[in-house]
Specification:
The complex is a heterodimer of chains A (about 575) and B (about 425).
Chain A lengths: L7 E7 L6 E2 L2 E2 L1 E7 L12 E3 L2 E2 L4 E2 L13 H5 L2 H23 L12 E4 L8 E4 L4 E4 L1 E3 L5 E3 L4 H16 L9 H20 L4 H5 L11 E3 L5 H5 L13 H6 L19 H27 L6 E3 H21 L11 H15 L8 H11 L32 H4 L3 H10 L1 H4 L6 E13 L5 E16 L19 E12 L5 E7 L4 H14 L10 H10 L4 H5 L9
Parallel strand pairs in A: 5-8, 8-10
Antiparallel strand pairs in A: 1-4, 2-3, 6-7, 9-10, 11-12, 13-14, 15-16, 16-17, 17-18
Helix pairs in contact in A: 2-3, 2-9, 3-4, 4-8, 4-9, 8-9, 8-11, 9-10, 10-11
Chain B lengths: L8 E7 L6 E7 L4 E8 L9 H15 L6 E3 L5 H4 L10 H6 L5 E5 L23 H20 L8 H9 L4 H9 L3 E5 L15 E6 L7 H7 L3 H16 L21 H27 L4 E6 L2 E5 L5 H8 L2 H7 L2 E5 L11 H4 L15 E4 L18 H10 L1 E4 L11 E5 L1
Parallel strand pairs in B: 3-4, 4-5, 5-6, 9-10, 10-11, 11-12
Antiparallel strand pairs in B: 1-2, 1-13, 2-3, 7-8, 8-9
Helix pairs in contact in B: 4-5, 4-8, 4-9, 5-9
Classes of the chains: A alpha+beta (about 575), B alpha/beta (about 425).
């Protein structure tokens, strides 16, 4: 049994920023996008490209895509219609990749079906997703050598921003201030998706395996020369012939030497730096898995291998990790995410669809790679089938008799009914305002070729208190916090039902968990971010700061409420 | 019997310059008075007669000091602090001040024209300068103002605050040049350095509490891994990119659309607002950076201390407030010139709470506070950024003898208020 294929078509995109050249050529790829009837823009059922440049006040003609791809690349790069095609196709491919991994349609977080994309939004070295404006904005600028740089032509950047929009649709609380991990997760995860998306494009890994190896050529490579260092030194990780320094930030993560100490240092409290640890853990796992797969091609160190086959093993490893990484989001808590939660989610999601991991040991490799950067799974119970995975709920006496599972597969009120009915057994505090955010039926392909039906429901809980009341609930009032200060605390959970409607997992953050709440309040109080401000446009500032580290100081103190009148 | 070489007191005169600062300090020595002008600029006056008002004030200063200023202090280069030094036009306030022949001009170390591009502190020996970053910042402010004009065609949003901050950050080359050349001696100071005023103000104890150099600033060091070279490169690079002329011309000639499609209208308006927000964020970063170059002076005259912090904000203050010897000095401040026109970030609570002379009861020793400001120009109550910040003003009124230049009303062009210690 397999899903019915949806008609698709291929579109030409840039696989790397045009400044990354291999053999003197810009790296391109053909990607599959749904074969839909597009209006000029292009304007499709999920993406609407509006080519408005607010810096010059000019609107460019809505593009008709696909463009004539037989023209030279130089001419394509000068054509705004190709820029529009590039963003449309990369956004659609990223969306499709999420939908494939999660086994269902994915909604944007805002009220609407089509996300707007402005490929030449403004003259600024910046690109970001804005929920409030239902859009992705890509800037352009002239670099130090007066060359015009279009961020909409950077595959990394487009996939990264699209990932922000998609994650926000799946877990809207993740954009709120909570902990250094949560702030870092959006950035690190978007980088992971961007990198693995590119590596999973057919033919791209082979093009980017630029490292010259003495005993290898265009067609064959010597097994003994395929070392971790050699693969890491290829253009895959940014060392092309001509690389824009902006790529360093994304790919340098791989070169962070494993250390369990880094995550506890002040330097890695900053969201982008901390996010790099997540990227480092995932990309080093990718390298390990690629090497394992190469090892399966030939055990003999002296063997000669087809270069294309070696590259394809890399593509497959990237593709599998990408699916795992996205699928984990369904198993991640609804609020206050920690890296350890994400790792447990990653391991659990994969165990559900691939119980047998004995060929390449993906989960063991990931556990090892994360541990090397000091990230341990949150779930440490010994009762689980494998280390680090979430524990199934104990044999609870749950009451299924008053709800209808058919309705629970799509109806938030019915899920809330179930939650309310079982609030005691599930440990849901009924003093908190509780809301079911989403109910999502999923259909995922398992390793035995069957379809795995699951229903994922997400709920959040909110309690409004005064700081002085915290101690009544067993929570700690941070030092110097005025007792009259209004405080909002959050909790919530994810309910995963199996195909028979039985609760399989309840991944939750109990609202009055004092360890988590004390840590969160202390962090927010000390960092001056108790008032979240405009979270819907937060990426605009975050992303500029990435390009301009030196300006961070003055921008961040805007929130220094503890110090200011 | 007082020492004839020491002043017996000081009078601080605050002029009504609207949104700006202008303070004339008169040090009363037994034999003579000595005069120090601290800042002279505006970005907006209550009656809108900015030029006439600055000219009238310059004349009043010249008359008051008998055409002799002993020193000029320009705390930082924002227009609301230095536009009065502009020498443009046949009669200009800047020329009048120049003709008062200040012996000493004091500015922050960041203004040192001879500092290297990677300078971490002021120097008199290097030939290159790192003012490129300032030039690019000013250029960006200019570009931002041009962009706002275009954005107005697509959005009904109020871009007022953006225009105001943008204008305050425009270059004022004539004033900068005048400051660089009007004095017999120039001093570019940093936290802990001599002020340069010692020679002209004998018997006055003077401490420079800010701005810190990059070497001194923990905040910057933390952010930039103690690599000042990289810090300045980033600043230059960033503002160079931002400061380039906007491409009003088309990116793709021949591909422009003639009409705005109906279905794109909603998003185009949003995109214009997003750009407005971005520009506002950038000019705020710019504005904060400039404010944080402010010279912070603490003077002690006949046992009374005056604190004059320019527009220094939390980042600038953090260096000195982290030092116990400085916090001990600040306890006995008698007169506080409220920082940055009463904004929320320029009077850190940690500073305010140090002042031992704060009191809800009137007395001869009660703390005096003076603010030069104009409401309605900057920030909004909704975002808690209004200047002056209402909560701060309420605190100042409750616990000090408070004066605001907003009390100087009427049609006179150079009204002022004096406090004598």
């Amino acid at each position: 049994m397999s899903p019915v294929a949806v008609p698709s078509r291929k579109m030409l995109v840039l696989a790397q920023d045009p400044t990354v050249k291999v053999g003197g050529k810009v790296v391109t790829a053909e990607v599959d996008v749904p074969d839909e009837i597009l209006s000029p823009g292009p304007r499709g059922y999920r993406v609407y490209v509006v080519d408005f440049d607010s810096s010059s006040g000019l609107l460019y003609q809505p593009a008709k895509v696909p463009v004539d791809e037989t023209r030279s690349l130089a001419r394509l790069l000068d054509d705004p219609a190709f820029h529009a095609q590039n963003v449309y196709a990369i956004v659609m491919r990223t969306l499709s990749r999420f939908e494939f991994a999660l086994g269902r349609r994915i909604s944007w977080s805002f009220d609407g079906h089509q996300i707007h994309v402005a490929p030449h939004a403004f003259r600024d070295a910046n690109a970001f997703y804005s929920k409030r404006d239902r859009g992705l904005f890509f800037g352009y600028f002239e670099d130090a050598k007066d060359r015009r740089v279009f961020t909409c032509l950077s595959h990394d950047v487009v996939a990264h921003e699209t990932t922000h929009a998609l994650v926000d649709g799946l877990r809207e609380r993740y954009t709120f201030p909570s902990s250094p991990d949560q702030a870092a997760f959006h950035e690190g995860f978007a980088d992971v998706v961007a990198l693995l998306s590119i590596f999973s494009l057919p033919g791209v890994v082979e093009k980017l395996m630029t490292r010259k190896m003495k005993r290898s050529n265009d067609k064959f490579v010597r097994r003994s020369e395929l070392t971790r260092d050699a693969l890491q030194a290829t253009a895959l990780f940014g060392l092309g012939e001509e690389v824009d320094p902006r790529h360093d930030a994304l790919r340098r993560s791989v070169s962070i030497k494993p250390s369990k100490r880094l995550i506890h240092t002040a330097e890695f409290l900053e969201p982008h730096r901390r996010g790099e640890l997540l990227v480092a853990a995932m990309m080093n796992a990718f390298l390990s898995l690629w090497l394992k797969r190469i090892g399966h091609l030939a055990r003999n160190e002296g063997a000669t291998l087809f270069r294309a086959k070696v590259a394809d093993e890399g593509r497959l490893a990237a593709d599998h990790l990408l699916t795992m990484g996205i699928r984990a989001l369904d198993y991640a808590p609804a609020t206050d995410l920690l890296f350890g939660d994400y790792l447990s989610a990653l391991l659990t999601a994969d165990l559900e669809v691939q119980p047998d991991d004995s060929t390449y040991h993906y989960r063991e490799t990931l556990r090892g790679s994360f541990a090397a950067y000091g990230i341990m799974p949150t779930s440490s119970r010994e009762t689980t089938t494998e280390p680090g995975v979430w524990e199934p709920p104990p044999a609870l006496k749950l009451d299924y008799s008053r709800t209808h599972f058919d309705a629970m597969r799509q109806d938030r009120d019915e899920v809330f009914h179930f939650l309310w009915q079982n609030r005691e057994a599930l440990g849901v505090d009924d003093r908190a305002y509780t809301r079911v955010q989403s109910v999502r039926p999923c259909l995922r392909m398992s390793s035995d070729g069957f379809l795995l039906h699951e229903t994922v429901a997400e709920y959040i809980q909110i309690l409004n208190l005064k700081a002085a009341e915290l101690s009544k609930f067993g929570l700690t009032q941070p030092k110097d916090m005025p007792g009259t200060l209004p405080i909002t605390i959050y909790g919530g959970g994810v309910l995963i039902f199996d195909e028979y409607g039985q609760l399989k997992y309840h991944i939750r953050n109990r609202i009055l968990n004092h360890t988590r709440q004390d840590r969160r309040l202390d962090y927010l109080w000390k960092s001056g971010s108790l008032t979240p401000g405009d979270t819907e446009r937060r990426f605009a500032m975050m992303h500029r700061l990435r390009n301009t580290d030196g300006l961070r100081a003055s921008a961040e103190t805007e929130c220094a409420d503890a110090e200011s009148f | 019997m007082p020492n004839p070489s020491n002043p017996t007191g000081v009078t601080v005169r605050s002029y009504q310059v609207g949104f700006g600062d202008c303070f004339l300090l008169t040090f009363h020595y037994p034999e003579e008075d000595r005069y120090v002008l601290i800042d002279f600029g505006t970005t907006g006056t209550p009656d809108g007669k900015n030029k006439q008002r600055l000219l009238a004030i310059a004349k009043d200063i010249a008359k008051s000091c008998h055409n002799k200023l002993h020193a000029v202090v320009a705390t930082h280069r924002h227009r609301d602090h230095i536009s009065g030094f502009d020498t443009g036009g046949a009669t200009s306030p800047g020329k009048i001040i120049r003709d008062c022949h200040p012996d000493v001009v004091v500015q922050p170390w960041t203004e040192d024209p001879k500092a290297k591009t990677n300078a971490v502190e002021a120097t008199q020996t290097q030939v290159e300068n790192f003012q490129l970053a300032f030039a690019q910042m000013h250029a960006f402010a200019g570009q931002a103002l041009q962009e706002i004009a275009r954005l107005k065609a697509f959005s009904t949003q109020d871009f007022g605050p953006l225009g105001f901050i943008g204008e305050d950050n425009l270059a004022n080359a004539a004033a900068v040049r005048n400051l660089m050349t009007m004095g017999k001696k120039n001093f570019y100071v940093n936290a802990g350095s001599p002020s340069g005023l010692e020679a002209v103000l004998p018997g006055v104890r003077i401490w420079v509490l800010g701005p810190p150099t990059l070497k001194q600033s923990d905040l910057i060091r933390k952010e930039r891994s103690s690599d000042p070279d990289e810090f300045w490169q980033l600043q230059n690079k960033f503002w160079t990119i931002q400061g380039k002329p906007p491409s009003a011309a088309s990116l793709f000639p021949g591909h422009e659309a003639r009409q705005l499609p109906l279905e794109a209208r909603w998003f185009v308006e949003k995109a214009a607002q997003v750009r407005g927000d971005q520009l506002l964020q950038l000019v705020r970063v710019l504005d904060n950076a400039m404010n944080n170059t402010s010279v912070i002076l603490l003077l002690e005259v006949n046992g009374k201390r005056l604190l004059l912090p320019g527009d220094a904000q939390i980042e600038n203050w953090s260096y000195s407030l982290g030092k116990p010897q400085t916090t001990a000095l600040l306890k006995s401040v008698s007169l506080y010139k409220v920082g940055h026109h009463g904004s929320r970030n320029a009077t850190p609570k940690t500073l305010w709470n140090l002042f031992a002379n704060r009191s809800t009861q009137a007395s001869a020793t009660r703390l005096k506070t003076m603010v030069s400001t104009m409401a309605g120009k900057f920030g909004s109550e909704k975002s808690k950024t209004e200047v002056p910040r209402k909560t701060l003003i309420a605190e100042l009124k409750a616990k000090s003898d408070f004066f605001s230049t907003q009390e100087l009303t009427g049609s006179a062009l150079s009204p002022s208020h004096e406090e004598t210690l």
